[in-house]
Amino acid sequence: MNIQTEKLNLIEWISKLNDTSIIDRLKQIKDDYSKSKDWWDTLKKEELESINRGLKDFEEGRIHSHETARKIYERHL
After folding, report:
1. Long-range contacts from 36-40, C-beta under 8 angstroms, 24+ separation
2. Do 49 and 29 sit in the same domain of this protein?
3. What is the reported pTM?
4. Which domain holds residue 56?
C-alpha cells in the first residue's frame, strides 16, 4: 500500500473516532512531531560547508573508490 492510501485510511478512521483518549494521544503525537527538528537543521556552519564541499567534489568528478580509500587509510582503521 502506498503512503497516500495509508493517509486516507487514517483520515477515515480518525473521522469515525469517538474515544477522546485516542484523539488526545493523536494530538500529542502531532504536537511532538511539529516540535521535532530535522537533524540537518542542527548542523553547524562548518559541517554544512564540509558536506557542500564533498558534494561539489562529487559533481566535479573528484572522487575515489572505496577500495582506494581503504588502501590510503587502512593504517588508521
Report:
1. none
2. no
3. 0.47
4. 39-76
